[in-house]
Every structure is written in C-alpha cells, then in structure tokens.
Write a structure and sequence with these properties.
Blueprint lengths: L7 H6 L4 H5 L4 H11 L7 H11 L2 H9 L18 H10 L8
C-alpha cells in the first residue's frame, strides 16, 4: 500500500479508506480499490478474484438486465437519466465488465 503521506486525497479525508474498501462485502468495491487505488494489474490474483466475484454478483446482473436491446433505447429523458444506456455501460465498465469473454 502506498504511503499515506504520498496521497493528498488521503490527507484530505483525514484517514485512509483503502483498508475499509478492501474488507468490504461488496466485491466491486474491492476490485475498484485494488485496481484504481492500489494500481494492481487486472492479472493480480486478488484483483482477479474480486472482479470475478463482482461479475457474478447480483449488482452486475441487475444492471445488465436494465440494458435495453440495441436500437430499442425507448423513451429516455436524457443523458442525466440513470436509464440512459451509455450511463449503464459506463457503470458496468467501472464495475469490471469488459467486452468479449471474461
């Protein structure tokens, strides 16, 4: 883990949230903490395990089920809507979903 003094955002928060995120029950939180905050590669065993758990978890499945069929976006109020397909796709990407196979 990086030195706390090296991370301005940790100093601003007053405490390091990374241990709490790494111990979270939510696999997506662990995957994001490992890869985005600790800069571990996707191939890291802990990152792979967290990503696999996130992809098989209910949150990712629920978001995928909310995606409209391609070309059938329906009535969406605009880019600020949580139902706007690009917003769902960006969130899924942030949670570890990638194109192709796992």
């Amino acid at each position: 883990m990086a030195q706390v003094s090296d991370d301005g955002w940790v100093q601003m928060l007053g405490a390091d949230p990374r241990p709490w995120l790494l111990a979270a029950d939510e696999a997506s939180a662990r995957w994001i903490a490992l890869t985005a905050l600790l800069d571990r590669p996707d191939e890291d065993p802990d990152a792979r395990a967290a990503r696999s758990a996130a992809l098989s978890g209910p949150m990712v499945g629920h978001l995928i089920a909310r995606l409209p069929r391609w070309g059938e976006a329906g009535a969406v109020s605009g880019h600020h809507s949580p139902a706007y397909m690009p917003n769902l796709l960006h969130l899924l990407a942030d949670l570890g979903v990638k194109g192709g196979r796992r």
